[in-house]
Amino acid sequence: MPRKLAAGNWKMNGLRANLTELETLEDRHGDAGVDILICPPATLISACEDTPFDIGGQDCHVAEAGAHTGDISAEMLADAGASYVLTGHSERRTDHGETDTIVAAKSQAAYDAGLIAVICIGETLAQRENGTTLGVIETQLTASVPDTADAENTVIAYEPVWAIGTGKVPTLDQIGEVHAHIRKQLMNRFDDGAEMRILYGGSVKGSNAADIFSVANVDGALVGGASLTADDFSPIITALEAS
Ligand code: PEP
User: Fold this and answer.
1) What is d(CA 93, CA 217) in angstroms, rounded to the nearest whole number?
2) CA separation for the pair 36, 214 (Å, rounded)
3) Going by C-beta distance under 8 Å and a sequence separation of 6 or more, which residues neighbour residue 46?
4) How many Å apart are CA 179 and CA 183, to the nearest integer?
5) pLDDT of 8-52, one tens digit each?
6) Is residue 179 flagged as an active site residue?
7) Which among 95, 128, 115 has a CA at the least distance from the CA of 55?
8) pLDDT tens digits for 160-189?
9) 56 lines ligand 1 (CB under 6 A)
10) Helices assigned H by DSSP within the chain
11) How far is the CA of 92 from the centre of ligand 1 (A)?
């Protein structure tokens, strides 16, 4: 069984004052039986050095260094104390035009810097409604995940775009169908595909986490809004531990 992972994506939220949330989380889950990852804004990564939780960036550049004003390389994230980085989050794909090819290059840059890439994929509402979800997922998996991926350096996050930050959540059957499809693709392509962690993301809350974690091939969650406070994130971690 892959080790379970509760990952929080703070997006463009969080000042140093908000790091007290991590202290509260440490009091409650400092010895959790699951992995806990926090992806704060890059400005806070080095300030998280005392937390027992894993820390991740939210994006990295494909290059190691160079003339790319405003960007951050995977090596810089690692140097600041990160061990993970999100790649291909739908907000990056939409807001910054990131293609599967770019996502694969960013994921490879993460591996090269010794980071674990959390590679995000997911269908839009239009794709869900026109019945192409599984095909879209397959294409994204093939093109966004480098051939060098393995269970140690890669986590897949299935995040239906229409469920992110909307309060809308797929049915458990829909989540199960996509996760089973992802697992099959990973096992066909990678020797250790059965061990690769697959997270569900999209409006996960304390109230729906236990149900989502009961679905086969769901190895944890990538959580946005409900990861910003210890009070909201804690019940999700507790549900994952109990699953
Ligand atoms: C996300 O940002 O990856 C996410 C899943 O957001 P939310 O939990 O707020 O839907």
Assistant:
1) 25
2) 19
3) 80, 81
4) 6
5) 999 999 999 999 999 999 999 988 899 999 999 999 999 999 999
6) no
7) 115
8) 999 999 999 999 999 999 999 999 999 999
9) no
10) 20-29, 74-80, 90-95, 100-112, 125-129, 133-144, 172-189, 206-213, 230-242
11) 13
